[in-house]
Specification:
The chain has 466 residues and is of the alpha+beta class. The protein has helices at residues 19-24, 26-37, 61-64, 72-83, 91-101, 108-128, 140-156, 162-181, 183-186, 198-208, 211-214, 222-235, 239-254, 257-270, 272-288, 303-307, 310-323, 357-361, 412-429, and strands at residues 8-9, 40-45, 48-53, 69-70, 136-139, 328-332, 336-340, 343-347, 352-355, 379-380, 383-384, 389-390, 393-394, 430-434, 442-443, 453-454, 459-464.
């Protein structure tokens, strides 16, 4: 190492370094290194030298040195390799404009999306799930894939005409899930040609999402229309180039929402006290707004009412805390000295810097018994709990499943809103029970990227309430 650089842990395997140890138990591995080397160290993982910053009071250094720690370079590489996006002239201006369009996923625009989403849930559930009075058995992850995909697609991209809907939605869903299954490999240095039929699946998905195809689907959301206008400005009428962007947005809209929905459902059904608390909270809201549960899905909710359900939000945040490995990663643009309260360290051009959420999410000093699911962890005296401490100091960053700063996940409000709505409708209108009594663990295949999937599916059953 050069003078002033953090300790380097690279193992004995060239290129791969410590990858195998990291993949086996990411948090345990990082914890061991932290005890040995402190809060800043560099690890060789799959050909990349990654410097971890583990002290939550130093996370803001990434914002402080944003000109030397690039987010853009990483996302550009990912866009090309994973989604086949073409880099055009003035690409930075394009990204800036697309980023501006994300304001349509928050504030007043989210109220319009909520209305639309509630209608889509009502239509889908009444057609597909409320028809029978008997118990239906399903695999929970498969069930979550099905409902999240259809609700997300119809809310963002529009309503496929009834005659074609079932075939179109199921084919698109199956292809995007096959693609998503290979996503961790696409993020590595493995050429796409070696990943079986991933390239042809990607081509199919892009063709499904071209402006020509989407024009046939009525009810497109404002965000998609706005992005379409921006993309035409930069790409002209190149259908496949624009289709690649639409495909990337669709993937981003479901890739993490599906596993979070699974974990929230799984944890709730394993904890009867969480089910009781949720039923009480939902019943209280419906009574206070003068709503009754009819035979169909008749409830109507504003965003303020949805946000007032603190127990529901706490459950989703707790599911995110236990499953999110969405690391904040930056590319070091030049050799420089990172100055912090705890001292200076030299970073090397071409390396990566990472903030690893499980380190704070699993810290027993911040969260008591962090390995346990506690439905009320983010509640206090019936209100949202937002104060957590480490070393006696209040933390600004204690729950970071969406990254932080200017590059926070732009769809975070939409994702949380969708999971809230789906859980609320399922618990209000259905009896739900786990059939298998088995403990599901995280499957560590996405250790830097998003929500970890379960290591196996689990059977549950549901039936409409009488």
């Amino acid at each position: 190492r050069r003078p002033g650089e953090p300790p380097l842990i690279k193992g004995w395997l060239p290129y791969f370094g410590m990858t195998m140890k990291f993949q086996k138990d990411p948090l345990g591995f990082i914890r061991t290194l932290q005890k040995q080397y402190g809060d800043i160290f560099t690890v060789l993982l799959g050909g990349k030298y990654i410097t971890f910053i583990l002290d939550p009071f130093q996370y803001q250094l990434l914002a402080k040195y944003h000109k030397k720690l690039s987010f853009q370079r990483l996302t550009q590489k990912l866009s090309v390799k994973v989604f086949s996006i073409k880099i055009v002239e003035n690409y930075e201006d394009l990204i800036h404009e697309l980023h501006g369009a994300y304001q349509l996923l928050q504030g007043k625009s989210l109220d319009i999306i909520l209305e639309d989403m509630l209608q889509n849930i009502k239509q889908m559930f009444e057609l597909q799930l409320l028809k029978t009075t008997n118990w239906n058995t399903a695999q929970m992850l498969t069930f979550c894939c099905s409902i999240v995909f259809e609700i997300t697609f119809t809310t963002i991209y529009g309503k496929v005409p009834a005659g074609e809907r079932k075939k179109f939605i199921s084919e698109l869903r199956d292809n995007i899930l096959k693609f998503d299954n290979k996503f961790p490999y696409l993020m590595s240095d493995i050429p796409i040609e070696l990943l079986q039929d991933v390239k042809s699946i990607r081509e199919k998905l892009i063709k499904c999402m071209t402006p020509e195809k989407l024009a046939k689907i009525p009810g497109t959301s404002e965000i998609v229309q706005k992005r379409q206008d921006i993309l035409e400005k930069y790409y002209g009428l190149k259908d496949l180039d624009i289709g690649a962007h639409h495909f990337a947005l669709l993937w981003a809209s479901i890739a993490n929402t599906i596993p979070v929905m699974f974990w929230a459902m799984y944890y709730v059904l394993r904890h009867p006290e969480a089910v009781d608390a949720l039923h009480n909270e939902i019943d209280h809201l419906l009574q206070s707004t003068g709503q009754k549960k009819g035979s169909g899905i008749s409830i109507h909710l504003t965003r303020e009412q949805l946000d007032s359900l603190v127990c529901l939000e706490s459950i989703i945040f707790e599911a995110l805390r236990l499953s999110s490995y969405s690391s904040t990663i930056r590319f070091v643009e030049e050799d420089f000295i990172l100055s912090s309260d705890t001292g200076d360290c030299c970073l090397r051009k071409g390396d990566l810097v990472a903030i690893f959420p499980p380190a704070i999410h699993g810290d027993p000093e911040v969260f008591e018994s962090p390995e346990e699911f506690r439905f009320d962890r983010f509640m206090e005296d019936g209100k949202k709990k937002t104060t957590f401490y480490k070393r006696g100091k209040k933390l600004k960053f204690y729950l970071i499943p969406f990254g932080f700063g200017a590059n926070k996940c732009p769809g975070r409000f939409l994702a949380v809103m969708e999971i809230k709505l789906l859980l609320l409708v399922l618990l209000t209108y259905f009896d739900l029970e786990l059939i298998e009594n088995k403990s599901i663990k995280l499957k560590y295949t996405r250790s830097f990227f998003g929500i970890q999937h379960p290591n196996s599916d689990i059977l549950f059953r549901y039936k409409p309430k009488s």
